[in-house]
Amino acid sequence: MNARPKKSFGQHFLHEKRYIERIVSSISPRDGDVVVEIGPGEGALTMPLLAAAKRMTAIELDTDLIPGLRERAAAVGELTVIHADVLKVDFTALARDLGVDKLRIAGNLPYYISSPILFHCVEHAPAIADMHFMLQKEVVDRMAAEPGSKVYGRLSVMLQLACKVVPLFNVPPGAFRPPPKVDSAVVRLVPLAPEQLPRVDGDAIYKVVKAAFAQRRKTLSNTLKGLIDEPTIRSLDIDPKARAETLSPSDFVRLAQTLARDD
Fold first, then answer.
1. 90 and 22 in one domain?
2. CATH code where residue 91 lies
3. Residue 45: which of 29, 23, 12, 74 has the closest Cα?
4. Maximum CA pair distance of the chain?
5. Which of 84, 103, 81, 104 is nearest to 93 (CA)?
6. The pLDDT value given to residue 74
7. Which end of the chain, N or C, is less packed with Cβ atoms under 10 Å?
8. E strands along the chain, which residues?
9. Contact call for residues 161 and 205 (beta carbons, < 8 A)
């Protein structure tokens, strides 16, 4: 019996087999991988992932879905279901509890809370091998956007400084029940190795990026006023009259390094 999707949880259950198969193939789970699924719903992705990995953990907030998940999983593999809000799950501690260095994370993320979930996962990136998420296509476009793009912004910069972002393929509304009003897309995120990460204070980069994109039409000299002055911006070979959307992630790192030194 199919569960009734709940608007309060932003539920859209994936049901079309060919897209399920493409996602599972993209993740390519193997026996021994420790896969953690966010929001398994009715288990459309859970069961084929579990069949390949043999052991799996799922994080589900909707208590009505948990008994059905456990029942379907019993004949497939070992499924541990954690009833929790994913934003309160410590993935670093979870990896330790499961006895592994790195988790593999997957999920069909609710549109209304996708960005907070992404940032929460990035906070635990050292404990994550890779992430495969289905999101609103517009969000994936923003995640992978390059400088100069109309959709390049805070999400693009912060994620690209922490991960390699690889859009994989689009998923139409008809693949879900009920169909969402937008197209979806699947994206792969691979956390960068420690030596690839920018050497910059996390609070400083957050402040600079947030301020720079707060008013997209204004120049850096305006948006960063009170944080970094014009002569300092110019000394970094960055035009104070430029807009945030024209700067590369590495430009923001240099600005943040200056801010951190001044503090």
1. yes
2. 3.40.50.150
3. 23
4. 66
5. 103
6. 94
7. N
8. 13-14, 35-38, 55-60, 78-83, 103-108, 128-136, 163-171, 176-177, 184-191
9. yes
- Position 32 scores a pLDDT of 86
Is 13 part of any domain? yes
| Listed residues 166, 196, 226: the one ending a domain | 196
Domain that holds residue 231: 202-262
Of 156, 109, 102, nearest in space to 130 by CA: 102
If asked whether residues 88 and 105 sit together in one domain, one would say yes
- How confident is the model over 98-109, as pLDDT tens digits? 999 999 999 998
Q: Give the list of residues 6+ apart from residue 16 with CB closer than 8 angstroms, or none.
A: 174, 175, 176
d(CA 4, CA 198): 45
Average pLDDT, integer, range 128-144: 97
In a domain, 187, yes or no: yes
The structure tokens listed for 56 are 């799996």
| Contact (CB, 8 A) for 230 and 255 | no
pTM of the full structure: 0.91
> 92 is written with which tokens?
């670093």
How many whole angstroms separate alpha carbon 156 and alpha carbon 136? 15
> Residue 231 is part of a domain; what is its CATH number?
1.10.8.100
Q: Does residue 53 sit in the same domain as residue 17?
A: yes
pLDDT at 120 over 50: yes
More confident residue, 117 or 259: 117
Q: Report whether 60 contacts 23 (CB < 8 A).
A: no
